[in-house]
Amino acid sequence: MAGERRGPAATRARVLAPLLLLTCCVRCAAAGGGPSNIILILADDQDVHLGGMVLTRLPLHCHAPLSSSPLPLLPLPLPPLLPPPQFTVTPLCCPSRSSVLTGRYPHNHEVRNNSLSGNCSSAAWQQGPEASAFPVFLGKQKYQTFFAGKYLNQYGKKDVGHVPPGWDQWHALVRRVQILRMLYYNYTLSVNGKEEKHGDVYEADYLTDLITNRSLHFLDDRSPQHPFFLMLAPPAPHSPWTAAPQYEKQFADVKAPRDGSFDKAGKDKHWLLRQPVNPMPESSLNFLDSAYRKRWQTLLSVDDMVEALVQKLDSIKELNNTYVFYTSDNGYHTGQFSLPIDKRQLYEFDIRVPLMVRGPGIKPKQTLQAPVLNIDLAPTILDISGTNLSSVNVDGQSFLPLMAPSLRNGTARPFFLVEYTGEGHQTSDPSCPKLGPGLSQCFPDCVCEDAFNNTYACVRTLERQHDLQYCEFADSESFVEVYNLTSDPHQLENIVKKVDPAVLQAMNQRLIKLQSCQGDSCRSGAVGEGHVLIFLGNASCWTRRFIPCVRFIEYAA
Length: 557
Description:
Signal peptide: 1-31
EC number: 3.1.6.14
GO molecular function: glycosaminoglycan binding; metal ion binding; N-acetylglucosamine-6-sulfatase activity
Low-confidence stretches: 4-31, 56-83, 526-557
Distance between the termini: 53 Å
Number of strands: 20
Cofactor: Ca(2+)
Shape: globular
Oligomer: single chain
Largest sheet: 8 strands, mixed
Radius of gyration: 23 Å
Keywords: Calcium, Glycoprotein, Hydrolase, Lysosome, Metal-binding, Signal
């Protein structure tokens, strides 16, 4: 029964408290005996930059084990969390999820967007990258595997009987039609390859709760002789933001954050960011505030999911031997640069995602300073499982050494790639005919969130005090955006005209190499380990390798 654990009063006692327990209540003793279990929770469109992880209240301190009594709470308002720097390598559902599954950049798994023609769950995907996704290797390590929720946007559109290799239990959302209201209710699942239709009865059909309850049954029925892996992919907080009945009236006074780049004109940015009406009309503000509240409401059921899983792991004596990962496929925006709601953009609010981990060997209350990418999840999970990573074709790298240095040695990457292929329609959007064809995701106020030429690639340098982003668009302007996020964290000023052309050339060359990288070459530093890249303008400088007019300052690793 989808809603069998529900209790409205519980909302007031805790909001995302179990999520925080993943990081602040870690038991540090390393697992003994056999391989560790692993759980991956992948939310849909959950941002971290705009408060997507900060709801009404947070626990003041941790309980271990998790108790059923109310947690001590901090009153509002709260300062924003300082999350670890995790990024998605592409800010859109299907290509991002494909990167999670394969550990590869989009240019290597070749999923470009959410459509079949964009290779989302296509025959080419199934015969190629999917056949070597990380669950296949977990099966070889004798893991019992379970999937429930949203897999890939086009999964099951042509063949509901297809079960990807590596999964023992399969409960995947079928996306035969593009009707968003069928995401939380009235959906179809592929249950081990057989079609299962659902209605609109909360107790039986609400998808987030159904995922939770089936995962708990799996844990009850598992064999204790082998480790387990669960991947749970709830629909929250994706639109249409359908909350569970007991949470529909929560956060009545909450509004989207008005700071940073909210409702700022996108001057000196790509043309798509220059076309929104600024300031935003009242109708758009009301719409995005409503969306913001509803997103939080749907996340309360995800909070319930995490709580139930932690309690179950504790009850079956597996909590100390299980790694739990919580993350999202991409970020989200609500009013930034006057864009109403969506993802797909190169900015922090769309590419930063939450990441919380608990498990054996991880010290409590630590925050990683090194950047972690969603392509790192697959090699990290395989590293935990004992798989020889040299036998796996991935672009990412395990961050187990960063989380638990007592278990592994490793190094952090100095820079990485973000890439996106824009989507559009061949004909003009009825909501915005004056802008012509080639656009998509348009709103009634003639604000379009995507276009064919919203295709870009960025190289991001994130080391110590140097936080830089260089992006090139595939359009008729060959448009370039450059940001120094150390001095401009909200990316308000495109400094491309203020940077030494030699530095731009260096970043361009680095970007070219990353766009064609594969495997080891995606992980190797173009400037070598132990160096920091500094922009010097026209100052005299020396060169190292292929990068002109850039100085490198050595530091102790």
